[in-house]
Design goal:
Layout: H1 2-19, H2 23-32, H3 46-97, E1 103-104, E2 107-108, H4 112-139, H5 152-182, H6 185-204, H7 208-224, H8 226-234
């Protein structure tokens, strides 16, 4: 049990730190001698990076934010598999030695069916922590006084492993279609966040812990878009291709 807690804490902490790296600020200062937060909407993400630094700078910011999400997803997958393997080995060793069966949360893990279900729960929990941790780190970066971006690029990275390619493509399609139709990046982002828990339920076979953590992460992304929601209501949100810049 202590090892499982350690894996969960490690996944959440490392994913948070990975997500907290403010690539938008780093790239703008290192290569463009400016601070992205002083331009456009003031956000450190891809959309404002394109407005501030051009396509090359924007693509660089997106790519690095996406990669840190991927790394968080790989970490969560590795720790989830390791935790499941350790539980299985411990249960097997206990049976071989003739000791008392391992019991966790009232479940006797000597039964192979129960053990498999338990490991699925643990894997889903650690995957969910990786997703929530990386997105939280991006939105509340400690390097920027707990301010940050809106979590879309990093979410796209970590959800690739959390959902698998099919579920991931479903969300990407939702985002892309809404952006093309409305020319609002924020509409695509918010709609994808709303759909994320439903895709999580489908991709995980209804794994509750995973779905709940994805729901929390999606809620955080929607909260981070609160200014966009206000501008959408007021009709002042920036559209793709719009020449006149709309200030935050």
């Amino acid at each position: 049990m202590q090892q499982i807690i350690l894996y969960c804490v490690a996944c959440l902490a490392i994913s948070f730190l990975l997500g907290s790296i403010p690539w938008g600020v780093i790239i703008s200062k290192m290569f463009y001698r400016t601070d992205i937060r002083e331009h456009g909407s003031g956000n450190i993400g891809t959309t404002n990076a394109i407005r501030t630094m051009g396509v090359v700078g924007g693509v660089a910011v997106f790519s690095l934010d996406f990669v840190k999400g991927l790394l968080a997803g790989v970490l969560a997958m590795a720790l989830g598999l390791l935790a499941a393997w350790n539980v299985s080995q411990a249960s097997l060793a206990t049976l071989v030695d003739g000791g008392e069966p391992i019991v966790m949360f009232g479940l006797q893990l000597s039964d192979s069916t129960v053990l498999s279900a338990f490991n699925t729960h643990i894997y889903g929990l650690i995957q969910g922590l990786g997703i929530f941790g990386s997105i939280s780190g991006h939105v509340f970066s400690p390097w920027l006084h707990f301010k940050g971006g809106k979590g879309i690029a990093v979410a796209a990275g970590c959800l690739f492993f959390g959902y698998g390619w099919q579920g991931w493509l479903m969300l990407v399609a939702v985002f892309a279609v809404l952006v093309v139709i409305t020319r609002y990046v924020s509409v695509g982002s918010i709609t994808a966040a709303v759909c994320a828990p439903f895709v999580a339920y489908w991709s995980s076979g209804g794994e509750l812990l995973f779905v709940v953590l994805v729901l929390l992460a999606a809620s955080l992304v929607i909260w981070a878009h609160r200014s966009n929601i206000s501008r959408l209501r007021a009709g002042t949100e920036y559209r793709i291709g719009q020449k006149k810049e709309v200030q935050e």
